[in-house]
């Protein structure tokens, strides 16, 4: 589990009167990702295999993306950062260290915001770039 220090935020809550929602204005749930027995072919049970996917990041397909369900940060390894045709000048300062790689805090080289596409949805994601060895290209929290 990779995590960072929370950024202090000032939160002010204002209670707005509740509006009556029509079916077209009610919030909708995101579609579920469901696995069934056909996904278990070749898997020895019980298992603790990691979830590894591929993503479209900044016009490129990036394989070996590790999903860290307990993580609080998205991490891109420096080797991947370079292969995506970026350099140090593309990074913004990262305000805090990461914990969970080893016993010491790990200080990112910086951060970068990139578009990530999953299916038909694209969103901007902030990646902390670290210079460490890894079998993965990205860790998504």
Q: Would you mind describing this structure in some detail?
A:
- The chain is mainly beta and 141 residues long.
- It has a domain at 51-141: Cathepsin D, subunit A, domain 1 (Beta Barrel), CATH 2.40.70.10.
- Helices cover 4% and strands 31% of the residues.
- The strands form two sheets. It has a six-stranded mixed β-barrel with strand order 2-3-8-4-7-6. Strands 1-5 form a two-stranded antiparallel sheet.
- Strand 2 and strand 3 form a beta hairpin.
- It is globular, with a radius of gyration of 19 Å.
- 16% of the residues are buried.
Number of helices: 1
The CATH class name of the domain at 51-141 reads Mainly Beta
Total number of beta strands: 8
Q: Which sheet architecture does the biggest sheet show? A: 6 strands, mixed, barrel
The gyration radius over C-alpha positions equals 19 Å
Query: What is the CA-CA span between the terminal residues?
Result: 9 Å
CATH topology of the domain at 51-141: Cathepsin D, subunit A, domain 1
Biggest sheet: strand arrangement: 2-3-8-4-7-6
- Provide the succession of SSEs: EEEEHEEEE
Strand content: 25-35%
Question: Which consecutive residue ranges, at least 5 long each, have pLDDT under 50?
Answer: 7-19
The whole-number mean of residue pLDDT values reads 79
What is the fourth-level CATH superfamily of the domain at 51-141? Acid Proteases
Overall CATH architecture of the domain at 51-141: Beta Barrel
Share of residues in helices: under 10%
Derived from helix and strand composition plus strand pairing, the structural class reads: mainly beta
Could you say which overall geometry the principal axes of the C-alpha atoms support?
globular
